[in-house]
Specification:
- This protein has six helices and 15 strands.
- The longest helix is centred in the C-terminal third of the chain and has 26 residues.
- Helix 1 packs parallel to helix 4 and helix 1 packs across helix 6.
- It folds into two domains: 160 residues, 3-Layer(aba) Sandwich (Rossmann fold), CATH 3.40.50.720; 157 residues, 2-Layer Sandwich (D-Amino Acid Oxidase, Chain A, domain 2), CATH 3.30.9.10.
- By secondary structure, the protein is of the alpha/beta class.
- It is elongated.
- Strand 1, helix 1 and strand 2 form a beta-alpha-beta unit.
- The strands form two sheets. Strands 3, 4, 5, 8, 9, 10, 11, 12 and 13 form a nine-stranded mixed sheet that branches. Strands 6-2-1-7-15-14 form a six-stranded mixed sheet, with helices on one face.
- The chain is 23% helix and 25% strand.
């Protein structure tokens, strides 16, 4: 009988996991989520992301990004309907951010970054190319993702591969076992609930906390993409500008505010975000001398990144709180959550490990069933 797999969570991590599982014919796959592509809710992080490929991992934990980059690049080059395009990217660095330990994503701004070998056109910027107030910079071709388009495309690819999608609200992860569209109990549950893992019964990862991100979406066009190592407006405020593919507008960011659950945009922060963006990228508003009044605002956004101080959790375990008396009868769970701000750029690498772990779970289940079968004389 075909194995049954239920993926809980329909953000970029859950959908990518479901898609890769379907591509290897792992079994009958059901995606269950409270929120789906097309929804905008503070609980649903994926639509709010920028999103681009901006290496943030340390060299010792760079598998996720190294494995994801080739696929995002391929999609940008060969699958325009996915909503990803290639774009030059400039990263500017201030020495004081590095020395003070204030930089949120230190590896991205390392003086000699591990990722420079990933990009054929990587180069260090000349002194005349550095924006005021910064000490150095680099440039390479990366990608920017129109999240509204890409999530719908990803969902469509899942449906094309036979994945069934259902809406449901879970209070405990064990409830997912009975939600397969096949009507059979799930053999494996994949937990891709992001920040929801903090409160979901059966997980309740108390280490999970939001990294609040406030951004402004504008109609103005701006290339190249820009990120800086810090700002003078406080440790929680950062600067990035990226133009989404397919008319998706330009995202101006932002904040990285740990522990802040506030869902409403702060108008004062919004003004600072826009001011920093215009100062760093005057061409955003048609050149120097024009201010934020020249920005055409689509909307103000707030998203909660699923931050986990110990890093992403991708591992398997038995759901020990399940109702069976025997631990061996409890369902397998494969976790894939805690990606903070790099869910898109690590999505395929993380999903590949999910596929490996689900395979191990199904193998162990089959082996246990073989061992427990009646022995003939």
């Amino acid at each position: 009988m075909e194995s049954t797999i239920v993926v809980v969570g329909a953000g970029v991590s859950g959908l990518t996991s479901a898609l890769l599982l379907a591509r290897v014919n792992a079994g009958s796959i059901t995606v269950v989520g409270k929120h789906m592509p097309g929804d905008y809710d503070i609980e649903y992080a994926s639509p709010w992301a920028g999103a681009n490929f901006s290496p943030m991992a340390r060299k010792s934990h760079n598998r996720w990004e190294i494995r994801t980059w080739p696929e995002l690049k391929r999609l940008a080059e060969e699958v325009p309907e996915a909503g990803i395009h290639l774009q030059k990217y400039r990263i500017y660095r201030r020495e004081k951010d590095m020395e003070g330990g204030l930089c949120i994503a230190d590896p991205m701004f390392d003086a000699d970054p591990w990722y420079k070998g990933m990009f054929l056109d990587y180069r260090e910027l000349g002194a005349d190319e550095i924006i005021p107030g910064h000490d150095s910079g680099r440039e390479f071709t990366s990608v920017c993702i129109n999240t509204a388009t890409y999530l719908q495309w990803l969902l469509g690819q899942c449906l094309k591969c036979g994945v069934v999608v259902r809406r449901a609200v879970l209070t405990h992860l064990a409830e997912a076992r009975e939600l397969s569209h096949t009507g059979r109990p799930a053999d494996v549950i994949v937990n891709a609930t992001g920040l929801g893992s903090a409160r979901l019964g059966g997980v309740q990862d108390t280490a999970m906390t939001p990294a609040r991100g406030q951004t402004v979406l504008v109609r103005n066009e701006c290339t190249p993409m820009v990120s800086t190592s810090g700002t003078d407006d406080g440790n929680a405020e950062i600067l990035y500008v990226m133009q989404r593919a397919g008319g998706g507008g330009t995202i101006l960011g932002g904040t990285y505010d740990l522990g802040n659950w506030e869902s409403a945009p702060d108008p004062n922060i919004a003004v600072r975000i826009m001011r920093r963006a215009v100062e760093a990228c005057p061409h955003l508003v048609g050149g120097a001398g024009r201010g934020i009044e020249a920005l055409s605002i689509v909307r103000h956004n707030v998203g909660l990144r699923p931050y986990r101080p110990f890093g992403v959790r991708i591992e398997r375990e038995r759901l020990l709180s399940w109702k069976e008396k025997d631990k061996a009868e409890a369902p397998w769970v494969v976790h894939n959550y805690g990606h903070a701000g790099w869910g898109y750029q690590g999505s395929y690498g993380c999903a590949e490990l999910v596929v490996e772990l689900v395979g191990q779970c199904l193998h162990d289940k089959a082996a246990a069933a073989f061992e427990s079968r009646p022995k003939s004389n």
